Amino acid sequence: MRRSNTNRLAVGVVALCMLGTSRSQAGYEGTDVKDGGSIVGTVRFEGKIPKRRRLKVTGADKPCHSKPIPNDDLVVSKDGKIRWAVVSIKKIKKGKPFPPADPENPVVLNQQGCRFRPHLVVVPPERTLRILNSDGVLHNVHLYARKNEPFNRSMPGRVKQLEVTFDRAERIRVGCDVHKWMGGWIVVAKHPYYAVTGKDGSFRLENVPPGTYTLQVWHEKLGTQQREVTVSPGADAEIEFVLKRK
Ligand SMILES: [Cu+2]
Fold first, then answer.
1. Residue 179 CA to ligand 1 centre (angstroms)
2. Which of 36, 187, 214, 241 has the most CB atoms less than 10 A away?
3. Which residues are CB-contacts of 30 (< 8 A; sequence separation ≥ 6)?
């Protein structure tokens, strides 16, 4: 049963890929990078540091009550560093290729403790994203896609995994129709130069061809910001983004 669900989905997904291949791959060429440099830095919050809230959890599903669920949509450390911000190069046409697909280790988005873990994933186009349900209760995966096919699928406790692919670059909000507090993001990347900030707000983009680029940061609550950056051969270009509430 589980297998047939996955297969049916895979057929639909393959059809989508065939429609979308030329569009998503257009505009970026993966190649050997000679004398590449890195872009490194941090994303910092300006203003009163927001406290982590405990989300209001309703219903009788036991896994949802096993641990307090904090908000993941604005996570700022005590020293003001922002987690879950996505830093990417805008409009880069040529550079390192995407890492080769590893079918044994796809990108995974898990539903665990009635929370999306991790909160945000970056996935290349036409690459498998495995969505897990390790809670054993009904979740409903709702992907609010606009450029890709919208996706809304019930995932009963016995269904442990679904696999999905996306053909177009897009930031897709993820929700669960059963547990309204659940929220996450899938970022379908245009090219391999995407980084997600860690707890310390840091990011690193490696093997960037020398040149001048527009670097963008995006955070779901704090919006986007752009900076120009020049990458020199074998060197680290350092950037600090400072974001505040709008
Ligand atoms: Cu759920």
1. 4
2. 241
3. 94, 95, 96, 97, 98, 191, 192
Q: What is the pLDDT of residue 17?
A: 38
- Contact between 210 and 37 (Cβ < 8 Å): yes
Q: How close is the Cα of 16 to the center of ligand 1, in Å?
A: 26
Question: How far, in Å, is the centroid of ligand 1 from the Cα of 100?
Answer: 32
What tens digit of pLDDT does each residue of 140-172 get? Answer: 999 999 999 999 999 999 999 999 999 999 999
Ligand 1 centroid, distance to 212 Cα (angstroms): 43
Percent of the residues in the chain that have a pLDDT greater than 90, as a whole number: 88
Give the CATH fold of the 2-243 domain.
Immunoglobulin-like (2.60.40)
Four-CA torsion 182, 104, 199, 51, nearest 10 degrees: 10
Distance 58 CA to ligand 1 centre (A): 11
> Band of the pLDDT at 16, cuts 50, 70, 90?
very low
Tell the residue number behind the tokens 């177009």, with chain if given: 168
Query: Cα of 117 to ligand 1 centre, how many Å?
Result: 12
